[in-house]
Design brief:
The protein has 252 residues and is an alpha/beta fold. It has one domain (2-251): Glycerol-3-phosphate (1)-acyltransferase (3-Layer(aba) Sandwich). The chain is 48% helix and 14% strand. The chain contains 8 helices and 7 strands; from the N terminus they run ααββαβαβαβαβαβα. The protein has helices at 2-35, 41-58, 87-93, 114-121, 130-145, 172-179, 192-195, 226-251; strands spanning 61-66, 78-81, 100-105, 123-125, 149-152, 184-189, 206-212. The protein has a 7-stranded mixed beta sheet with strand order 1-7-6-2-5-3-4, sandwiched between helices. The model has no long low-confidence stretch (mean pLDDT 88).
């Protein structure tokens, strides 16, 4: 029975990779043109969001968003979701209408085709290179000044220890929000690890629940407050995840 289940998961996973690859290739030239000028980025974002929603749909995922009305489509934010799966990037495209750029690790550019688009459309950071971090911070600042939101997974990586509900946060997102006086939006992804983890023979179609929490304002704050709002953001997401775990236990 386990063998049959693994075979089904194998083909389901290959279905995912096939859709990702063969839907990007036909529009690849168009995406490159749109990414050649910063003012065309909003158009690229709309196409990327439609692409991500299509992939989620054909994989059998149903996105359920709580708190969508809390995001003003005319404002810039620093979005801070938890990081659990390779689905996180696609799911994030389905959350706000506000054009945003990801700040992500440079290893993502190694993914065939998708990695190249991600490199051209996002801000990549080499965590081992301090100069890379400084340059990424400058690039993100420029995007924010131009009215584009930024999405940073504050954990910086997907926790390898499955017992970790939420890993510790880096400070970059909070420093950025304070310097630009921009609100931070904590976002909780509940189901990505269960639905499509980095363990190959795992996962299944189903709900992908998203909770958009109340934004955290940075009015009047200084850089000395960054650890305070970092903890505040962490606590909001962490408590939400723990409450969901507790609710699931009570269902059984």
């Amino acid at each position: 029975m386990k063998i049959l289940k693994n075979i089904a998961i194998f083909f389901w996973r290959m279905w995912f990779y096939g859709w990702v690859l063969f839907t990007i290739i036909p529009i690849f030239p168009i995406l490159l043109i749109l990414l050649s000028r910063e003012k065309w980025y909003p158009v690229f974002f709309k196409i990327a969001a439609a692409w991500a929603k299509t992939i989620l749909f054909v994989m059998g995922f149903r996105v359920e968003i709580d708190g969508f009305e809390k995001i003003d489509p005319l404002k810039s934010y620093v979005f801070c979701p938890n990081h659990t799966s390779m689905l996180d990037i696609m799911l994030m495209f389905a959350v706000p209408k506000n054009p945003f750029v990801f700040v992500g690790k440079k290893e993502l550019k190694k993914i065939p085709v998708f990695g190249y688009i991600f490199k051209k459309s996002s801000i990549l950071v080499d965590r081992k290179d301090s100069e890379s971090g400084r340059q990424a911070f400058k690039d993100a600042n420029r995007k924010l000044k131009n009215g584009t939101s930024v999405c940073i997974f504050p954990e910086g990586k997907v926790p390898t220890d499955l017992s970790i509900v939420l890993d510790s946060f880096k400070s970059g997102a909070f420093r950025m929000a304070i310097e630009h006086n921009i609100e931070i939006v904590p976002i909780t992804f509940y189901d990505c690890k269960k639905r499509f983890s980095y363990t190959f023979f795992s996962g299944s179609p189903g709900k992908l629940r998203v909770k958009i929490h109340d934004s955290i304002k940075t009015d009047g704050l200084t850089l000395s407050d960054r650890n305070t709002i970092k903890k505040q953001t962490f606590d909001v997401i962490h408590k939400s995840l723990l409450l969901d775990i507790e609710n699931k236990k009570n269902e059984y």
